[in-house]
Design brief:
Keywords: Membrane, Transmembrane, Transmembrane helix. It comes from Thermomicrobium roseum (strain ATCC 27502 / DSM 5159 / P-2). The structure is a single chain. The protein has one domain. About 65% of the residues lie in helices and about 5% in strands. The protein has a 3-stranded antiparallel β-sheet with strand order 1-5-4, with no helix packed on it. Strands 2-3 form a two-stranded antiparallel ribbon. The longest helix is centred in the middle third of the chain and has 34 residues. The radius of gyration is 23 Å and the shape is globular.
């Protein structure tokens, strides 16, 4: 499968030259030294998270749930976390199902973000009272009892449970390593979470079979959750925004942001986490191609929706275009268009850049910022409509409200909630080894060195 040296730009990664003992040594070094260095950023992130909680209490909560616009940046933080941290584990599932070997050091960088799901779930519960019932307004729920509150909460709770189950089960073998070889402070929690894992043949067979199924279950829940969020948080709150494409746009662009978050996480691990032997050009190149593909999909779904409004030209459609793109939120839309589609295309279309480590990393950072601007634009537009503008099955905007300008409280909320997600990841990283020993060593057992003329080949098999 792989050749030694360079061929057509392919470079054999050092991972395949290592012995299983080398991988275990890297993981133990992470647990003993690198994990300890995470204490300071963890404390800083935790402090920012507490400030964000205080800001929620001091600003939107003090104004009450009737004033939905005061909750705009709580909604923006919620939608952004759902579009990034909640999307990253879905990437891991896709790579597992494809059974590619280059993904083995990548999985943990994406799966670890599942531990942050509790924050968007709590934010969702806080936002629920700001929504009116669906009896007298257009909604995807068609007047179901207790909609949208009950059914949306059930979906979010199911997704959160599936995410934590996926993150835990995929880490079982490595948690057992921490239990047996970690620092005393790390062993107690790892022993409880590893649940008697001894690495028997039967346990491995169950692990290989179940971990993929849990990941697929997570993806199957994630897609309808994002569809419902697109409807409840955006479409249903903007009178006259009749579109069947937006939920697909919202979900696809979330996958794009999930890939971007994984690439940035990999870059951080490579630069400051001692993972250069495991996260090389092969991983960044492969994910860079996926990021380019999803950037093109961003444009495809945006254009599919836009062209209908553009040619329709009814007063209702013209108001929607003016409100979301060409007047009220013109600059956020331009930045979103540039950072989610134009710049990724113009940068990643060049092979040398796409084949590098820095190129995909820079584009991923741009996409993450572009997605944040897009979610702020959408939340600001949707949460500017009072309840009376929605009732009576309103079919058009009665008036185009001015753009929502954030205050200091809004910024503290946004930064605090994102810092809270980061704090959970940093805390978890102190108990999980990098790289994933089970994944990387599992690939090394499938490797064989073979002579070929005057060179040496490394052949890597696939189990199926």
């Amino acid at each position: 499968m792989a050749t030694h040296g360079h061929a057509h730009g392919h470079e054999l990664q050092r991972t395949w030259e290592l012995a299983p003992a080398d991988v275990l040594g890297s993981a133990l070094r992470w647990m003993r030294s690198t994990a300890a260095a995470l204490r300071r950023p963890l404390v800083i992130a935790a402090i920012l998270f507490v400030i964000g909680i205080v800001a929620i209490v001091a600003f939107p909560l003090r104004q009450g749930f009737a004033n939905r616009q005061a909750w705009t940046y709580v909604a923006a933080a919620f939608l952004y976390l759902m579009s990034t941290a909640a999307a990253a584990p879905a990437l891991s599932t896709a790579l597992r199902v494809a059974r590619s070997h280059w993904r083995r050091p990548v999985n943990r960088a994406s799966e670890i973000w599942a531990v942050t799901l509790v924050i968007p779930f709590l934010l969702y519960l806080l936002l629920l009272p700001t929504f009116p019932g669906t009896e007298d307004r257009l909604s995807v729920w068609f007047g179901w009892p207790l909609s949208p509150w009950l059914w949306g909460a059930i979906l979010l709770l199911t997704l959160t449970g599936a995410g934590y189950l996926f993150a835990w089960f995929s880490s079982l073998p490595d948690l057992a390593i921490v239990r047996d070889h970690g620092e005393p402070a790390q062993r107690g929690l790892a022993a409880w979470l590893s649940r008697g894992w001894v690495g028997s043949h039967r346990q491995w067979r169950i692990y290989e079979k179940v971990v993929n199924n849990i990941g697929v279950l997570y993806v199957l829940i994630y897609v309808p959750v994002m569809t419902v969020l697109a409807s409840d948080f955006i479409i249903a709150l903007i009178p006259g925004y009749f579109t069947a494409v937006f939920p697909a746009y919202f979900t696809i662009t979330s996958f794009q942001a999930g890939i971007a978050l994984t690439i940035v996480t990999m870059a951080v691990l490579r630069r400051w986490g001692g993972q250069a032997d495991y996260l090389g050009r092969e991983q960044f190149w492969a994910l860079g191609k996926m990021l380019l593909a999803f950037s093109l999909l961003w444009f495809y779904f945006w254009w599919s929706e836009f062209i209908i409004f553009w040619y329709g030209r009814t007063p209702r459609e013209i108001d929607i275009l003016r409100f979301l793109m060409f007047e009220t939120y013109l600059w956020p839309f331009i930045l979103s268009f540039a950072m989610n589609f134009a710049l990724p295309l113009l940068i990643l279309m060049w092979n040398p850049i796409r084949r590098s480590i820095a190129g995909p990393t820079v584009v991923a950072a741009i996409v993450l910022l572009g997605n944040l601007i897009d979610r702020i634009r959408l939340a600001s537009a949707a949460f500017s409509q009072p309840d009376k503008a929605l009732l009576g099955h309103a079919h058009a905007l009665k008036a185009i409200p001015p753009a929502y300008i954030p205050g200091i409280g809004d910024m503290l909320i946004l930064i605090g909630m994102l810092a809270g997600a980061l704090a959970l990841v940093l805390w978890t990283a102190r108990y999980l080894p990098f790289p994933s020993v089970a994944e990387v060593v599992g690939g090394l057992w499938l490797r064989a060195h073979q002579p070929f003329k005057h060179a040496r080949l490394i052949v890597i098999g696939k189990t199926e």
